[in-house]
């Protein structure tokens, strides 16, 4: 498992997302009210981008920019159609003021 530096905590304030790339995988790292979560930047409906779309920081879901599926940022599970399969989630932690995500 590889660990990626996302950036300083100050650069990812509450209600924001940052996309990081690790080889062939892109990951959206979200700050939901001070808690960090990471999901694969791929909608399970049609493999299109997910994290480039809007998201609801209060309810904690990403909105697929292509077809509007809602994906829970905390668990990766789909909340609305057309997505029916979950997306991968990744552990996130803060070390010495740097947000880090572990990817496979």
Give the arrangement of secondary structure elements.
Blueprint: E1 2-8, E2 16-22, E3 25-32, E4 35-40, E5 55-56, E6 61-63, E7 70-72, E8 89-90, E9 92-95, E10 98-103
Antiparallel strand pairs: 1-10, 2-3, 3-4, 4-8, 5-6, 6-7, 9-10
List keywords for this structure.
three-stranded antiparallel β-sheet; 104 residues; globular; Rieske Iron-sulfur Protein; single chain; mainly beta; four-stranded antiparallel β-sheet
- Helix fraction by DSSP (H/I, runs of at least 4): under 10%
Can you tell me the residue ranges where pLDDT is under 50 for at least 5 consecutive residues?
Answer: none
- The helix/strand class is mainly beta
**CATH homologous superfamily - what is it?**
Rieske [2Fe-2S] iron-sulphur domain
The main β sheet shows up as: 4 strands, antiparallel
Distance between the termini: 5 Å
One letter per element, helices H and strands E, the order comes to EEEEEEEEEE
- The 3D shape can be described as globular
- Broad CATH class: Mainly Beta
CATH topology type: Rieske Iron-sulfur Protein
Based on DSSP secondary structure assignment, what is the total number of beta strands?
Answer: 10
Percentage of β-strand residues: over 45%
- Give the number of domains: 1
**Average of the residue pLDDT scores:** 96
Question: How are strands sequenced across the largest beta sheet?
Answer: 2-3-4-8
Estimated radius of gyration: 13 Å
Please state the second-level CATH architecture: 3-layer Sandwich
- Helix count, DSSP H or I runs of 4 or more residues: 0
């Amino acid at each position: 498992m590889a660990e990626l530096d996302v950036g300083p905590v100050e650069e990812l304030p509450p209600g924001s997302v940052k996309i990081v790339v690790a080889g062939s995988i892109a990951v959206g790292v979200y700050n939901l009210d001070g808690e960090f979560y990471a999901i694969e930047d791929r909608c399970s409906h049609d493999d299109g981008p997910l994290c480039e779309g809007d998201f609801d920081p209060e309810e904690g879901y990403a909105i697929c920019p292509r077809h509007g599926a809602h994906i829970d940022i905390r668990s990766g599970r789909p909340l609305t159609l057309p997505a029916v399969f979950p997306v991968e989630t990744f552990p996130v932690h803060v070390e010495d003021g740097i947000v880090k995500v572990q990817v496979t």
